[in-house]
Amino acid sequence: MRCFIGIDLGSTTTKAVVIDENRNILGRGITNSRSNYDTAAAIAKQEALVNTRFHLFRNALSRSAALNGKLDDFLGHLERDFRLEQFLEQLADLEATCRRNAEGTRFGDHAAAVATALIEVFQRLQAEAPALFAPGAKRKSDFFRDIAGSRYLAIGETVAKEMGIRYDMVLNVFDRSIIEVENRVYADAMGSNLMRALERTFKGMPETAGRAAAIRAPIQGVLDTALEETYVIGTGYGRARLPFSKEHIRSEILCHGLGAHVMYPGTATVLDIGGQDTKAIQVDPHGIVESFQMNDRCAAGCGRYLGYIADEMNMGLHELGPLAMKATKKVRINSTCTVFAGAELRDRLSLGEKREDIMLGLHRAIILRAMSILARSGGVRNEFTFTGGVAKNEAAVKSLKELVRENYGELRLNIDPDSIYTGALGGATFAWRAVVEEGKAVEARARA
Amino acid sequence: MTTPIQMTPPQASKKPVPPAQKEDAMLLQKEMINRNYHELATAHDRGKKVAATFVPGNLNELVMCFDFARSLPETNALQNGMRKKSGKMIMDAERDGHSEDVCTYVKADLGMMLGGEVGPTGEPLPRPDLLLLSYTGCFTFMKWFELIRQKYNCETTMLHVPYQGDGKISQNMRDYVVKQIKENVIPSLERVSGVKFDIDRLRQYMKESAKAEDDLVQVLQSAKKRPSPIDGYFGAVYYIGPIFTAFRGTTEATQYYDVLRREIEQRVREGKGPITPEGEMAEEKYRLVVEGPPNWTHFREFWKMFYDEGAVVVTSTYAKVGGVYDFGFRHDPDHPIESLAEYCLGCYTNLNLPQRIDMICKYIDEYQADGLLINSIKSCNSFSAGQLLILREVEKRTGKPAAFIESDLVDPRYFSPANIKNRLESYFQMIKQKRTVAAGAVH
Predict the structure, then answer these.
(1) Based on the domain organization, do A407 and A297 belong to the same domain?
(2) Whether residue A173 is found in the same domain as residue A295
(3) Do A296 and B419 lie within an 8 Å CB cutoff?
């Protein structure tokens, strides 16, 4: 089937969206951008295609009624098992890479001990892996680097202590290996991982095993359908690094404008707060950009600002918003300079202000800066769509709502739970327009 | 839509930069500018006095009547910027106590002095004997000379040119400027130089000015053609070099503009587009009007962001910064002092916001431009104040899309290529999309 794909290479994450000929969203994929945009683009696209398969499984299985009433449970289980298989595959690669990197003379007399420690570490990692993907399990991040990294460090430290070897040696092997592993694309593994996952799911849900053949058939049917990458459009900061011709590249401002329009056709103003920039975009009723403003040179007041604050507070990025929501008092933070805000934060803490109150002040500071960029772009018009990673942060949304109401009155504010994919959706829509509306020939397929 | 675009592999920027292609006139103007630096370097040895004065409102013909060598501090700074020397100078000036927010032309100039008073070409740049401040709207110019005067204790003469706050030049304003030229400026120039004023000499220079001005206007207005044979911003900064600096009124300048005009006329006859550092531009896809000075430290990289995308600047307000000639003003040998007054009063920096908006709207119309691009200069309040209002108003009046980028004159730290490129590409794509919509191809 024909697929139209948009890939948005952001500074923090890379996103991909797949749509079909009727502009239905089939799949979404996301990965961390690493230092390698080519890999990030390839993996995000692959993730989106995997997600597309699952979407198609759902359609096919619900048509076949093989799982009457159990479809959601089954697919949820299957997806977790699939993620586990993917994880195990990468973990095996990481182990092999670590072992290779531990060879040679680097560790001198300790080489044998390090090798033994690695075996032990990876055995434990493998043993605990199923629990990481169990129903309801909480993971700080879904990226292999983050999951495997945090567990490796914890287990590695224990094992090093038990075996009486230096922890930094175990750490060193990981640091050398993770970048290699992270930059490998496991493109052909979809089918085999899925088959293994299917076996796990049948075991996990024994009541479905009896209907295995009836379930397998539609899944196999989907797997046998080729997903043709009809047209790919790349956007975002890394777009110049994509192995695409210019025809396949669009500015992320246009993609965000169009993506927001596709999500909410009434959109007139778009605010996007991403990792390193804040964009205010005015679009016309067709989703075409009329004017835009961005932050200049400095990324203060963008997503990275929150990342920095999270580091300063020794918290996870996703914990900031919920903490700020507990605020009972307004603390004014003046600095939108990331580094100064860190200083102001410590200063406020030392003055005895509560963490949650300071946190709300920091969120408000970001939004104040966004308000200034919005004003420069021509203000906020109805409807107003907020996108980007920061739109997931409830405290930022709260501040934005307040400030928009104060300055522009009551407006409709749209936030899509998948707003992080707005740019990629715009890209996919551009890809669709290029082929369906402008009759672009399918160019030499971009390899990403 | 399916036009061939030259594809640039991502590694291209790492390759050694090939020598830039230039028109003959561009090479000639470089020679002239370099020669002027040599004349400045040897002025005191040759018994000549040195006058420093700013580009907008410069009284070059008058100053030449007293045999002064002429130094233009902003030109010195931008030349140092283009030659990648300004960064250190600015940091030296900051170490000497000047804030990060001060005009970077000023800091580059002061840093140059701290660094041993060497000019952009490597020859010494002499201390001025006279600072002639023709005040045409930029407050910083006054402070700049105040700093130099404090440093060198040199003689200063100020010509106060009233701002066109009401958007017009009254007889009172003219009389006021004429009176100052006669009663203050000329006597000072006589005193410092020891040369007596000769009005016929001034008339003679003005004849030359007017000829050169005619040619310059023809060259700049050639961009009304499609394709435009010139770039009215990046190319124009070469074209305006001689006439905006020490050469207006000289026969050399007249000859230069004659050569330039012929060269451009030839390009028009051949239907050629502008010359860029990488050769002739293949296809003109976007026609822009630009407001605001260019960035000098990354001039070529900045220009590349335009020509790589097929964008031509058909005209710019910056190319009028040393004299607005395209609405009819010429230096007039029959009324020399009065026309100097008129010239100063009509400088771009001396126009109010509505006048600037009118001018830009007129340009968009006459040059059939796709829209307005503003390059807002971080350290130039004189140019930047009100630019967003200009942008909104021009958008409203012309219905053409406008965009806003930010950089700096000569501080290399303020040039963020990824950010600027991102905005420019978005803007070009926005124009393209609007055209598609206008053609009814969407939905």
Answers:
(1) yes
(2) no
(3) yes
Do B30 and B245 contact (CB within 8 A), yes or no?
Answer: no
Give domain limits for chain B: 21-438
The answer to the question of residue A318 being in a domain is: yes
Task: Yes or no: say if A356 and A398 are a contact pair by the CB < 8 Å rule.
Answer: no
Residue A221 in domain: no
Residue the block writes with tokens 């004023």: B197
Measuring CA to CA, which residue among A136, A173, A181 is closest to residue A156?
A173
Please report, for the domain that includes residue A305, its CATH number: 3.30.420.40
Give this prediction's pTM. Answer: 0.82
* Structural domain includes residue A21: no
Q: Which residues of A touch B395 (CB under 8 A)?
A: 291
Q: Report chain B residues whose CB lies below 8 A from the CB of A286.
A: 437, 442-443
Pairing of strands A278-283, A269-273: antiparallel
A178 plus A270 within the same structural domain: no
In chain A, how many domains are there?
A: 2
Residue A348: domain span? 265-415
A280 lies in the same domain as A410: yes
Q: Are residues A306 and A166 in the same domain?
A: no
Please check whether residues A409 and A279 belong to one and the same domain: yes
Complex ipTM value: 0.74
Residue-level pLDDT, tens digit, chain B, 443 residues: 334 444 343 344 445 667 778 778 888 888 999 999 999 999 999 999 999 999 999 999 999 999 999 999 999 999 999 999 999 999 999 999 999 889 999 999 999 999 999 999 999 999 999 999 999 989 999 999 999 999 999 999 999 999 999 999 999 999 999 999 999 999 999 999 999 999 999 999 999 999 999 999 999 999 999 999 999 999 999 999 999 999 999 999 999 999 999 999 999 999 999 999 999 998 999 999 999 999 999 999 999 999 999 999 999 999 999 999 999 999 999 999 999 999 999 999 999 999 999 999 999 999 999 999 999 998 898 889 899 999 999 999 999 999 999 999 999 988 989 889 989 999 999 999 888 777 765 44
Residue of B nearest to A255 (CA): B426
Q: Which residues of A touch B434 (CB under 8 A)?
A: 288
Distance of CA B402 to the CA centre of its chain: 22
Compare all CA atoms of chain A with the CA of B436 and give the residue at the minimum distance: A438
- What is the rounded radius of gyration, in angstroms, for the C-alpha atoms of chain B? 22
**Do A170 and A306 fall into the same domain?**
no
User: By the 8 A CB rule, do B129 and B27 touch?
Assistant: no
> Is position A437 within any domain?
no
Nearest one of B380, B370, B49, B79 to B244, comparing CA atoms: B79
Contacts of B224 (CB under 8 A, 6+ apart): B314, B366, B367, B368
* Residue A243 touches chain B, beta carbons under 8 Å: no
Looking at the structure, do residues A410 and A275 belong to the same domain, yes or no?
A: yes
